[in-house]
Amino acid sequence: MTKNPAIELRQISKSFGPVQANKDITIRVMPGTIHGIIGENGAGKSTLMSILYGFYKADAGEIFVDGKKISIPDSQAAIAAGIGMVFQHFKLVENFSVLENIVLGAESGALLSPSLSKARAELAALAAEYELNVDPDAIIEDIGVGMQQRVEILKALYRQANILILDEPTGVLTPAEADQLFRILKRLREEGKTIILITHKLREIMDITDTVSVMRQGEMTATLRTGDTTPEDLAELMVGRKVLLRVDKRPAKPTKPVLEIQNLNMVDDFDVQRLKNINLTVKAGEILGIAGVAGNGQSELLQVLGGYSPATGIIKLNGSEIDLSTSVSGDGQARRALGMAHVPEDRQREGLIMDFMAWENAVFGYHREKSNQANRFFMDNNAIRKETEDKMKRFDVRPPNPRLTAKNFSGGNQQKIVLAREIERNPDLLLVGQPTRGVDIGAIEFIHQQIVALRDQGKAILLISVELDEILSLSDRVLVMFDGEIMGERNPANTNEKELGLLMAGVSEKAAQ
Amino acid sequence: MIDFLTLLQVLDSSLRLATPLLLVCLAGLFSERAGIFDIGLEGKLLAAAFVSAAFAAITGSVWLGLLAGILASIMLSLLHGLASITLRGDQIISGVAINFLAAGLTVVVAQDLFGQGGRTPPLKSGGRFEPINFPGATSSKEINDAGPLMQLYSELFSGHSLLVYVALLTVPLSWFILYKTRYGLRLRAVGENPAAVDTAGISVVGLRYSAVIIGGVLCGIAGAYIATSLQANFTKDMSAGRGFIALAALIFAKWRPWYALSACLLFGFFFAVDTRFQNILLPAWSLSGFLILIALGLISYVWKKDYLDKVVLGGLALGISTIAIMIVFSVWNIGANSQIKIPVVFIQSLPYVLTVVVLAGFVGKAIPPRAGGQPYVKER
Predict the structure, then answer these.
(1) Which of A15, A173, A513, B27 is 20 to 30 Å from B270 by CA-CA measure?
(2) Closest CA to A163 of A347, A8, A373, A275
(3) How far is Cα B275 from Cα B265, in angstroms, rounded to an integer?
(4) Does B343 have pLDDT greater than 90?
(5) pLDDT at site B351
């Protein structure tokens, strides 16, 4: 007798306005397996799973759970069908305790305290069974993301989920935490749970899944047994053409220091010290990578360097010191004039104005330059548009239409617009934050090539990324940040993810030896 | 000096004046805890005041008046809910619109019904809430001869309208609902992170509507109180900014029921002082000393602040010190024992000045519910 699939989706379609996110998706997941769904950003993976969890409603198609056709109009129905989901952005109430978050929506009565004590007992049992230990009284915003993720998993298990969907679960974890998560997932599989893992990381698919489905542009392009495939094949299925997974680059030839940072400290508005005695130097002709789990001071370092957060200490650019005392507006412009360019971490908030057109976005920060002025009073918009169009072609922005608003471009193309603006000014120092976050593999390849090309022209590059693969393949030197401090420096050629992972988790140099 | 009985009388009227503030403040608390900012509290209060006074005047029953006031307020709450929850509009704009709607409609309808220049006729007995006298309390005629404990019992505890006691009971009730029930947990969650509530399988829309309806009920009681108990008819704009002061009290109270009680009592006290004392005479020296202290306090407060704060607040400090120095000079001329009369308008402005001070963030950091003011839209 053949078993029924735990989950079967037939001909699921969903569109958001003119964008078709899912086209006729059919997928079967057998019980007791880990099934991976891989695809580029925007391929429709998360949409598909949100439909399964009742967060979105499909336009067409059928859902079967354990061989029975059901309809999932809302999350309540999904929970009742035994489906649990851990979203990429956790759905937790930040100032509630772990226990309150777990109980929310699954209370046993109108009064709170019986529900809480029941949950406390059950939580202890679950923790023992699956090695999922958390302090039930801790407040969510006080615990780390790894712990928060456990709370999300516990939330699903508390609701007796048999099918667990995880959306990009490792994006926010250190390598060690990710390993631990995978151990938990394997344990859950042994207990007969079915797990669907959504990711864009090929390595995770190869490590843990039994079967894998590949999605591209809203369509399911293949479903394979993981053992029968290779990362290269999967990458090709994802992008639709052959992809170079590693960056091709020659050894760096560093020369004079361009950026020197000495004893940099920064305290935020809530009196929390975000940067602690940062010392670093970036030389011309090298890429200095800063690795670390998100939220350990990398963003603040970029903010201070970019001129939008005050700090104390010394920052020298080409030998001349920069004023750090105030956040007076226009400071970013002064820095640009000294030869600094900045590709911010969050391109949608800091890099672009989403409702403005590409050509307008392409001159921000440089709009006062002589070359952009027609006369004393007016900007030369026609010239700017012409120039933007050329830039867009050089940087392979699709479509190369300068009159399109920024929000109408895909993530990768938005990033290329920002890169084009910053790189084409021929800066001495380029600050790059998360250059490929939310960018598809094809565009990643291009962006990496541009950054390496800039280095080879003898420019200094400070790269901040939470993607360890990216740091290791692009950087000439790697610094690791933890809790606002630099934990140590490594040469990417003779280090590995495990060693960096320890530093990222705050295990200091001495303790590691 | 002020004697004990006078003090009691001031506190007594503080309580009566704090009651509508408290009810409206708790109405705002439920709504804002659920993530719906409610700038239309003022409008709901005014509308409820009018409708309850009109119904009480026509039917002669204060209970029908109360019920009608509550229903009117709920209608406006649902309007706000429709605009901000269902249609995902801007909550501030919807609230402002409700305020204008109430300010205009009440007068027009009152004029049409009663023809008394936009007011309702005075309510007769039966159309108002009468004071409830506790057993054994002395009457106001004999209170001067009673002992201090008796004075406290009769003046402060006894002799209020039923709605005052209702308002006071609402505080522990709100606390219990918010922190001890399933509904309260969900309500607080939906104001912090509606997506968490949605993915837990609970209706965000349903929760938010229930919160604005509770707010409507409380505003309705408050409106009925000011028109049928605090006063005995409806007059144009009789809510007198109480809805906005309640909002300030809500921020002052950091969105918590017990804090809301203290904040509203404080505001009530200022109102009571303003009605009780007309012109206050103060020794000139102490006044100028007090002003200089305020100026120094301002200066030390802005010392570590940004440039803009320094300019604005520093300017304020400079102005206050100038007034103080002018007083010192005038004292020089007219003698050291001179007194300065503080005009009544200064006292009257105190609650509003306090509101501005509270809103300017002088009293610690008040962190509003994180999802407040944002309509809930699933991603994309």
Answers:
(1) B27
(2) A8
(3) 15
(4) no
(5) 75
Rounded Cα distance between B41 and B241, Å, is 10
The number of angstroms, rounded, from the C-alpha of B144 to the middle of its chain's C-alpha atoms is: 32
Domain stops at, among A210, A239, A268: A239
For residue B1, pLDDT beyond 60:
no
**pLDDT at position B300:** 76
Q: CB distance B202–A105 less than 8 Å?
A: yes
Does one domain contain both A219 and A285? Answer: no
**Which pLDDT score, from 0 to 100, does residue A329 have?**
46
Question: Do B185 and A112 count as a contact with CB atoms less than 8 A apart?
Answer: yes
Comparing C-alpha atoms, which of B24, B89, B50, B67 is closest to residue B250? Answer: B24
Which residues of B fall within a CB distance of 8 Å from A156?
Answer: none
Q: Report d(CA A123, CA A156) in Å as an integer.
A: 12
Query: What pTM does this model have?
Result: 0.79
Q: State both tokens at B36.
A: 């719906």
**A222 in the same domain as A169:** yes
Residue range B150-178, pLDDT digits in tens = 888 888 888 899 999 999 999 999 999 99
Neighbours of B218 (CB within 10 A): 31
Ramachandran quadrant class, B288 (left: phi over 0; alpha: psi -120 to 50; beta: rest): alpha
CB distance from B179 to chain A under 8 Å? yes
Q: Which of A250-264, A460-474, B11-25, B292-306 has the highest mean pLDDT?
A: B11-25
Domain termination site, one of A239, A268, A283: A239
- The pLDDT-based confidence of B208 (bands split at 50, 70, 90) is very high
Mark whether A317 and A455 lie in a shared domain: yes
E strands in A30-162: 34-39, 60-65, 68-70, 83-86
In this structure, the answer to whether residues A272 and A228 fall within a common structural domain is: no
Residue range A201-225: mean pLDDT, rounded: 90
pLDDT (tens digit per residue) in B126-154: 888 888 888 888 777 777 778 888 888 88
B281, two tokens: 């005479």
* 3-class DSSP state of A388: helix
CB contact under 8 A, B182 and A76: no
Kindly calculate the radius of gyration of chain A based on its CA atoms and give it in whole angstroms.
Answer: 25
For A164, the 3-state DSSP assignment is strand
Residue-wise pLDDT for A298-339, tens only, equals: 989 998 888 878 888 889 988 888 877 665 545 777 788 888
Residues A144 and A291 in one domain: no
The set of residues, in sequence order, having a beta carbon less than 8 Å from that of A389 and lying 6+ positions away, is A359, A400, A401, A402
Task: Tell me whether residue A362 is in a domain.
Answer: no
- The reported pLDDT for the residue numbered A326 is 60
What is the helix (H) or strand (E) element at residue A314, kind and residue range? strand A312-317
Q: Which residues contact A251 (CB under 8 A, 6 or more apart)?
A: A476
User: Looking at chain B from residue 22 to 41, which residues have their Cβ under 8 Å from any Cβ of chain A?
Assistant: none
User: Which residue, chain included where needed, has tokens 């008394």?
Assistant: B116
Question: Which residue range forms the structural domain that includes residue A125?
Answer: 7-239
**How many beta-carbon pairs under 8 angstroms link A with B?**
77
Sheet architecture: strand order including A320-321: A273-283, A257-267, A312-317, A320-321
CA distance A108 to chain B (A): 9
Give chain A's domain count.
2
Q: Give strand pairing partners of A22.
A: A14
Mean of all residue pLDDT scores within chain A: 88
